[in-house]
């Protein structure tokens, strides 16, 4: 209640400027940070919660239950920037190997990988190991017709970009679309370099355009 009152401006006449009356205190006490597009009470609560969580995650894990220990191990692994820099792209390359490699980052994928490659198997691995749904979304949830049981749901997945508007509209959407394609090209080149695959910019460009066309078809 005190926080609500603090965010009001009781000196303003609510009949003349209700917005100033209700929010004037907030406007005088807070400035939108340069790193944010908005700033509300929920953003403050989130920031306060992150500080509390940081303190909890940095305490000793002795005597903690297993779930808390795992959370602290994950936090420490993310904060170990020197090890992250040392490992460089090796974790990503290992992940690509698990899902059957990436044709655009391989010299002869069609000959060495495709014969034994199974889409059903790789989709299940990406779902179970990496929580990544591609082409289809599949998950277990409460049955809408009988809440006492769970069933498998199959749905459309999320797109590479936030919504289908990004694939078809002009203006800023088109600029994002162009940057998205360039981002894919850049990543593919970096991975080819890390795998010591010969440079072939035209091949990478052609393959990533195909990826963009496929995503556009899915969005449609």
TrEMBL record:
One BP term from GO: protein processing
One Pfam family per UniProt: Peptidase_M13_N
Peptidase M13 N-terminal domain mapped to chain residues: 14-220
A GO term for molecular function: metalloendopeptidase activity
Entry-linked InterPro entries: MetalloPept_cat_dom_sf, Peptidase_M13, Peptidase_M13_dom_2, Peptidase_M13_N
Recorded coiled-coil stretches: none
GO cellular component: plasma membrane
Protein name per its UniProtKB record: MMEL1 protein
Originating species: Chloroceryle aenea
Lineage of source species: Eukaryota, Metazoa, Chordata, Craniata, Vertebrata
Gene encoding the protein: Mmel1
């Amino acid at each position: 209640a005190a926080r609500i009152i603090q965010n009001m401006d009781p000196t303003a006449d609510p009949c003349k400027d209700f917005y100033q009356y209700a929010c004037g205190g907030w406007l005088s006490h807070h400035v939108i940070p340069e790193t944010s597009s908005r700033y509300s009470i929920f953003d403050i609560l989130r920031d306060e919660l992150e500080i509390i969580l940081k303190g909890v995650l940095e305490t000793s894990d002795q005597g903690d239950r297993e779930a808390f220990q795992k959370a602290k191990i994950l936090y420490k692994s993310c904060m170990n920037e020197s090890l992250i820099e040392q490992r460089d792209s090796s974790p990503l390359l290992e992940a690509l190997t698990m899902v059957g490699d990436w044709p655009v980052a391989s010299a002869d994928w069609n000959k060495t990988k495709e014969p034994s490659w199974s889409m059903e198997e790789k989709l299940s691995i990406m779902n179970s190991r990496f929580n990544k749904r591609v082409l289809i979304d599949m998950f277990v949830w409460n049955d809408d017709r009988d809440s006492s049981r769970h069933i498998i749901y199959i749905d459309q997945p999320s797109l590479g970009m936030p919504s289908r508007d990004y694939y078809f509209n002009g203006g800023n959407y088109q600029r994002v679309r162009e940057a998205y394609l360039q981002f894919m090209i850049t990543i593919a080149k970096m991975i080819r370099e890390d795998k010591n695959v010969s440079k072939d910019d035209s091949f990478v460009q052609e393959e990533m355009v195909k990826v963009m066309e496929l995503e556009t078809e899915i969005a449609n």
